[in-house]
Design goal:
five-stranded antiparallel sheet, globular, mainly beta
């Protein structure tokens, strides 16, 4: 049986169902065009890090997936 750290990738326009869920998000940096992966929550229509900081203006969300527990 295959297990994955995160559920299926979702488009950025779709909102995660639960703000308490940890989300893996792929962002593209406008400065160097590199993709990076970050752990965030979806709170009040914004991507928020666990320390309550937000994505910078140079980070453009590409897609997200819910992190599976266990």
């Amino acid at each position: 049986m295959d297990t994955h750290a995160a559920g299926p990738w979702q488009p950025v326009g779709a909102a995660p169902p639960d703000p308490k869920q940890l989300i893996l998000i792929e962002v593209k940096d406008k400065r160097d065009q590199r993709s990076r992966y970050m752990l965030v929550h979806w709170v009040r229509d914004r991507w928020v890090f666990p320390d309550r900081s937000h994505l910078s203006d140079t980070q453009v969300p590409q897609r997200w997936a819910v992190v599976n527990e266990g």
